[in-house]
Amino acid sequence: MTDILTRNDAVNLEHVAGSSGIVLGANQYGKAEVRVVKVTRDTNRHEIEDLNVTSQLRGDFAGAHLDGDNAHVVATDTQKNTIFAFARDGVGSPEQFLLRLADHFTGSFDWVTGGRWLAESYAWERIVAHGEQHDHAFVRSGQEVRTAAVIADGDERHVIAGLKDLTVLKTTRSGFEGYPRDRYTTLPETADRILATSVSTRWRYVPGAEVGYNAVYDSVKAILLEAFTENYSAALQTTLFEMGQAALVAHPELAEIRFSMPNKHHFVVDLEPFGLDNPNEVFYASDRSYGLIEASVEREGVTSPAEVWASLGAFC
Ligand SMILES: O=c1[nH]c(=O)c2[nH]c(=O)[nH]c2[nH]1
């Protein structure tokens, strides 16, 4: 072999690699963050669905990586166009929309054996003008971003719903005590503090469950918020578990639920230098560093598919 690889030699790396024991590992590819807005305008009262969709295919793409052969490469541009074309029929729910994409790509191309489809959806509400909800003017709403994911592997479909950036706070009925103290511990114990977090959560549906995705989403969100208010919080960890438990108890179609919750610390400001007391009324809202509490709440005896969660990237 010559010392200098030409560009074509590099494209044919498989042959070089094959002899050097280097092989292609896991791969997926597609179009990320397709911003699609669907307006339904059958009547004067328009409806809006606003999504950010990512499509990535898995399967036999060795040719493209190793031989410069694109015969199997469904172009990312085609994947983007498919998302827009499917939106023409309406979205329905982000989960249904992603399932439709998964079925389409795995059903249309033999070598596409699975993939990963993600969506964020953004809520809009009607502007109230002259005391009436407007027919076609909207204001962005939503305290959170709704998320959905479909992971397809052969005929298997894992449907994962969730939300992020749901910021909640309670001004009392939270504390943090009884933790170990060592030479580096300075944090004072307290039985009365602000508890604040920005909830990121994803829940996995029981495979094959018949689910009204939009209704279950609304219900789970309401249950999580209620559980946050319910009990005295001995730690954010305790509250996280109670939130997950409440969702699983109410919804048998949920197999498990995961959370990633930053502890958004609010420190009581020392006002003594100004001759003032501070009975838990004035706080410094610190944006970093922050505690980061992550956990999965599961059903006893139900195995969690680690590879499905891993393919979503972060903890949840
Ligand atoms: O709810 C809490 N959990 C912790 O693990 C922790 N650690 C800490 O310093 N403050 C808190 N608060």
UniProtKB/TrEMBL annotation:
It catalyses: urate + O2 + H2O = 5-hydroxyisourate + H2O2. The keyword Oxidoreductase applies. The keyword Oxidoreductase applies. One of its GO terms (molecular function) is urate oxidase activity. Pathway: Purine metabolism; urate degradation; (S)-allantoin from urate: step 1/3. Pfam families: Uricase (PF01014). Gene3D superfamilies: Urate Oxidase (3.10.270.10). Keywords: Oxidoreductase, Purine metabolism. It is an enzyme of class 1 (oxidoreductase). One of its GO terms (biological process) is urate catabolic process. 5-hydroxyisourate binds at residues 76-77, 176, 193, 237, 263. Urate binds at residues 76-77, 176, 193, 237, 263. The active site is at 31 (charge relay system), 76 (charge relay system), 265 (charge relay system). O2 binds at residues 76, 263. Its EC number is 1.7.3.3. Belongs to the uricase family. Catalyzes the oxidation of uric acid to 5-hydroxyisourate, which is further processed to form (S)-allantoin. This is Uricase. It comes from Agromyces aureus.
